[in-house]
Automatic annotation (TrEMBL):
Keywords assigned by UniProt, alphabetized: Cell membrane, Membrane, Metal-binding, Transmembrane, Transmembrane helix, Zinc
Protein name: Hemolysin III family protein
Domain of life of the organism encoding this protein: Bacteria
Natural source organism: Sutterella seckii
Keyword Membrane on entry: yes
Membrane topology, as annotated: Multi-pass membrane protein
Amino acid sequence: MGNSEKSALNALGGYSVREEIANAMTHGIAVLLSIAALVLLIVFSVREGAGALAIVSSVIFGSSMIILYTVSTLYHAIPNLRAKRVLQILDHSAIYILIAGSYTPFCLITLGNTTGIVLCSIVWTIALLGALLQPILLKAADWLNCVLYLGLGWCIVFVMKPLIEALPSGGLWLLAAGGVTYSLGVVFYLWERLPYNHAIWHVFVLAGTTLQFLAVLLYVIPDAPGIAA
């Protein structure tokens, strides 16, 4: 491998072959779990007699999981540098999509009012802008993405009062635990000198997604307006 190729690889993370295998495997497993999660969300929505809004929200949330984990797996599994550059942009963009997708059930079902619709619109607008501007953000500074991810993820605190009133305590704990897990994972994402730091970050992301998936499955969907509503 020439010096230019090594420099390009370092710019794309500089992971060893073993690290990239771990990176790909962690989110490869997550792809399969995300597909199962989407199916469960739809089945539970139908079984609970939830309306179309619950099903649509479930599809958006589940699809955002599948998109992120699929793109991430491909990014780490494909060695071609040109493909890797494109997939890196898509990978970082997909994180914004997952954040917005995760908000959707809580905004449209749990809050389910003007506040929820406005918050959902704001989050999706910021997420889409973040995704579209990803080529610029990656060149500027990767830490800026982390700040935006965390800021977007935690803007839920601005609607905590109505959320606490609408979401059962178990759902609140799962939602909060998911947010904390995501946030702790960022520490390992930025800890570049730690071997397998990115794979560890992947595990935290998957854990955060799982916690919030459980919140939607067990607490959001059961309280969704019924078909006749």
